[in-house]
TrEMBL record:
It comes from the Bacteria. Residues 16-76 form the HTH tetR-type domain. PROSITE patterns: HTH_TETR_2 (PS50977). GO terms for molecular function: DNA binding. It comes from Bacillus weihaiensis. This is TetR family transcriptional regulator. Keywords: DNA-binding, Repressor. InterPro entries: Homeodomain-like_sf (IPR009057), HTH-type_Tx_Regulator (IPR050624), HTH_TetR (IPR001647), Tet_transcr_reg_TetR-rel_C_sf (IPR036271). Residues 39-58 bind DNA. The keyword Lyase does not apply.
Amino acid sequence: MTSSTDTLTARQQQALKTRQKLLHAGKETFLEYGFQKATISHIIKKAKTGYGTAYVYFKNKDELFMIIMEDLMNEFYQVAEMPFTPASKEEALEQIKKQVQLFLSLAIKEKEMMSIVKEAIGLSPEIEKAWYDIREKFISRISLDIRYAQQNKLARLNVDAQLVARGWFFSNEMFMWELVQNSTHYSLEEVIHNLTTIYANGLYE
């Protein structure tokens, strides 16, 4: 079977390798220096490429970082896109609890990079906008799960799925940042139990 890279010319394959090298070097640089102190010069030096090379692929470090951030968030999307087809409130609670556990555990596993994401959101309007778009993607996916539960007469019909989804994501996001930054005295298990219990009892019949 032919892979997508096999159809590229030698020049295109080299360009792809250079871009990946810059992204890898970029991630290492951000982890070493943090977002604010990292520079394109640091990244170029680590990638061992020519000075102007980085600007062929990325207009600035913000754009390079956004691609790294989006790659990281794809791991979180896999959790959000897990099949959600409960037949009862109990099944819904178990599936929701599992998603929250995987979501927050992944944030803790990637806490070094997530801390830099948090820093970057506060410093770069471009990255703040990119995070807003990521957040909206999660909210849209959650609202689909809520509508499924409503259509199957599991969840209350007198609530707006999109509005509830927003509140649910923001609750998870708040605890995600607290766990990443070690700013909560609650354990992961306590957060998961209380979040899912309040959410499920408020939404499900």
